[in-house]
Amino acid sequence: MRSSGISKTTTSRTVSSSGFMNKVYLFMTLGLLVSAAIAYYFHIHPLLTRSLMASPILFYGVVFAQLGAVLLFSRMVTTLNTQASFILFFVYAALTGVTFGMISFAYTAQNIGYAFAITAGSFLGLSVIGYTTKKDLSPIGSFCMMGLIGLVIESLLAIFIPGLRGNTIELAMAAIGVLVFSGLTAYHTQKIKNMGYEMQNQEVAAINGAFILYLDFINLFLSILRFFGNRR
After folding, report:
1. Cβ atoms of residues 112 and 104 within 8 Å
2. Does residue 43 contact residue 167 with C-beta atoms inside 8 Å?
3. For residue 116, what are the contacts with CB-CB under 8 A and spacing of at least 6?
4. Residues 6+ apart with CB under 8 A from 145
5. Distances from the Cα of 88 to the Cα of 79, 157, 208, angstroms
6. DSSP characters for 57-111?
7. Would you say the C-alpha torsion 230, 62, 188, 29 has a positive or negative sign?
8. Which residues in the chain belong to E strands, given as ranges?
């Protein structure tokens, strides 16, 4: 009888976890669609995009708005209600779409398509690994977080040190980025799978998980694009 009870509990948790992750992937997909739609709009309106790129205030305004959204979401995720979380996530997705609209002029449509296909396939495989593995991926996550910090520091230094913008260094940073965000995708998937049990508001937890995986997908895509893509 006890064994039957344990089996039912395990099955219930599995079903609950599966339903929660379905919501996570749904929100993430919607976020990617919003970004793609905004990016396409700016791509087919080159004069608008060039005006944005030519204005330092507008350009850096978009960049800092994205950073602000990430910081706000990460710090206040446990206190935000469902509506606020939803709005913040999709505002960030829209801002990312604006950035991608500008990036689309630096690479050919073919390179962007190839990079997206590789990213989608890699992300799917890595996420499946993270969801199904019984092994604790925390050590990999910690190692990749250190790599992420290194990438951020290098990016900041490159603003002030032109020598860090060379093709060889950029290629190396892109390769490291692919490894870092590949590891984080698997690690975050495993972590998010348990998030639904830890947060009382399941909708907010799902949006938070979608936001995390959205960031992994976007950064993996950018790293792959920089590594394989040929600039115009």
Report:
1. yes
2. no
3. 221
4. 184
5. 13, 29, 10
6. HHHHHHHHHHHHHHHHHHHHTTT--HHHHHHHHHHHHHHHHHHHHHHTTTB-HHH
7. negative
8. none
The answer to whether residues 77 and 204 touch, using CB atoms and an 8 Å cutoff, is yes
- Render pLDDT for 58-73 as a digit per residue (tens, 0 to 9): 888 888 888 888 888 7
CB 186, CB 128: distance < 8 Å: no
pTM of the model: 0.87
CA distances in angstroms from 223 to 58, 119, 129, 173, listed in the order given: 25, 9, 21, 8
The answer to whether the beta carbons of residues 88 and 69 sit under 8 Å apart is: yes
Q: 48-54, long-range: CB within 8 Å, 24+ apart, which pairs? A: 49/101, 49/102, 49/105, 52/98, 52/102, 53/102
User: Average per-residue pLDDT in the chain?
Assistant: 85
List the structure tokens of 64. 């800092």
Question: 107: which strand partners?
Answer: 231
Closest alpha carbon to 76 in 67, 85, 87? 85
Query: Count of residues for the chain?
Result: 232
Residue type for position 180 = V
231, β-bridge pairs: 107
Q: Are 113 and 153 in contact (CB under 8 A)?
A: no
- Tens of pLDDT, residues 69-112: 888 877 777 677 888 888 899 999 999 999 999 888 888 888 99
Helix count and strand count (H, E) for the chain: 8, 0
Residue type, 17: S
